[in-house]
């Protein structure tokens, strides 16, 4: 028999009690909201050491689950085949946030070694629009963030090609910074038209002297310093959208809120 105000005995079951969603003092419930990173290899690699996706996991630790859906070599045309699988219109809760980071492959030049990935710039913009519209159909409250393709260091791409293929390396650049900028411009324009935020990595990185080797490992993909720029700009954009990590609730009570002699109170 319990005396008034006493703590009930701890459960004797070998398994911890399972509380219903919302039983943890008004927090997010048992399921954390998701942030989905959708893009090409620059997104796929974002969970490597020093990656911008891994840094987001740390920033939003216990506030949101960061899920990577990056596909090396993909352009927006091929991404359209994925959206109904990754973002179904029913069945699971839609993400709280989705970043869309395509364009580096769409901007590959025709007549060069990577022309198979090329997507005309007008189609690139239309494909991005179709992806955004699908996400809006999934949720009218989802924060959708477009990210422009990064700049291209053509000399760095040439050095990388020579290191990989020696004398058989391609003689002409398969990507140029000028063309990447054209695609970045269309990404920015679409974001403006659809009233969604856009991270202009193409311009931001070029503000720093020596960006070619500081931010890019092979003329295209990101160094840890380049990843840090993407992380900083994405977090700034999410904060502007009202998703400040320090103001978001934990999925379960912080340990300081748990009474060692009566822990169940923290979970009521």
UniProtKB/TrEMBL annotation:
It comes from Urochloa decumbens. Gene3D superfamilies: SGNH hydrolase (3.40.50.1110). Belongs to the 'GDSL' lipolytic enzyme family. The keyword Transmembrane helix does not apply. This is GDSL esterase/lipase. Transmembrane segments: none annotated. GO terms for molecular function: hydrolase activity. It holds the Pfam family Lipase_GDSL. Keywords: Hydrolase.
